[in-house]
Amino acid sequence: MATGFLDANNVPTLEIEILGIGQATKFTCLVDTGFTGFLSIPLLQALPLGLVLTATTTVTFANGATADRLVCLGNAIVDGVTKSGTILLEQQGGIAILGIDFLRKFGLKLVVCPTSGAVEVVLASAAFTTPAGQALVPTAVPAPTPSN
Amino acid sequence: MPSDPKVVAERGLQIYAAKYQRDLEVRCPGQYVAIDVESEEAFIRSTPEDALQEAQTKRPGGMFHLVKIGSPGVFRVAFSLSGAPDGDWIFGR
Predict the structure, then answer these.
(1) Digit-coded pLDDT (tens) for A83-97
(2) Of B36, B35, B38, nearest to B74 (Cα)?
(3) For residue A91, what is the nearest residue in chain B, using CA coordinates?
(4) Is the CB of residue A37 less than 8 Å away from at least one CB of chain B?
(5) pLDDT (tens digit, 9 = 90+) per residue, A42-53?
(6) Which of A40, A87, A88, B31 is the most exposed place for a label (fewest CB within 10 A)?
(7) What is the per-residue pLDDT for A144?
């Protein structure tokens, strides 16, 4: 399964390939579970891929504001598996972002280890190590023994 | 055909509001519609990519505006480097 890492800002990143017209190109994507879409990539990185601009759409920000974006259809590749989806094009910035629809289409779930910085996507059918419904409560730290 | 994405989006939303919104919000909420901003034709499917694929097949070379029926936006984003939401798409004004 594909692996990634927490970047310098503690943001999970993952390397995937995006396929436009011709050869697939590797992208290191920020994994953003607050993004409901498939992929978002900078416009300047989309053009060399040969992605064809086909539409505009409206996105909603966390504060409820909306904005218009260009969108195209494209393919992404993870571990040799190819899936199609809509790709938002950002006119600024240099960061590719992968969203929840990407994980859904590939049938993957995200596993992040904040201690080691390891990031993995594994098959969604794989069992969680924590049983469903069990709350993740931090282990209680024993109070220090008062010293005289 | 308009080449400025802001113009395409505005035109698409105008067409949607005038011709389709009232009916589609009753008949197929939560689905996706791609509006051809030239022919004003609508292509409705259950996923955004299916709506765009259908639109491209029926109207090759067309320019479309994608709407999620009943929602203010098709996607929710938490992070964007493209400046103020209300700024100009190209020049950021």
Answers:
(1) 999 999 998 878 999
(2) B35
(3) B82
(4) yes
(5) 998 988 898 888
(6) B31
(7) 60
The CA distance from A69 to A20, in Å, is: 19
Place of tokens 């809509």: A86
| Cβ contact A56–B49 (<8 Å) | no
Domain ranges of chain A: 3-123
Nearest to A97 among B10, B79, B92 (CB): B79
Which residue matches tokens 């993870």? A78
| A54·B56 Cβ contact <8 A | yes
DSSP A77-127: EETTEEEEEEEEEESS-S-EEE-HHHHHHHTEEEEE-TTT-EEEEEETTSP
Closest CA to B66 of A100, A85, A68, A104: A68
Contact A55 B65 (CB under 8 A): yes
Q: Does A13 lie at the interface with B, CB-CB under 8 angstroms?
A: no
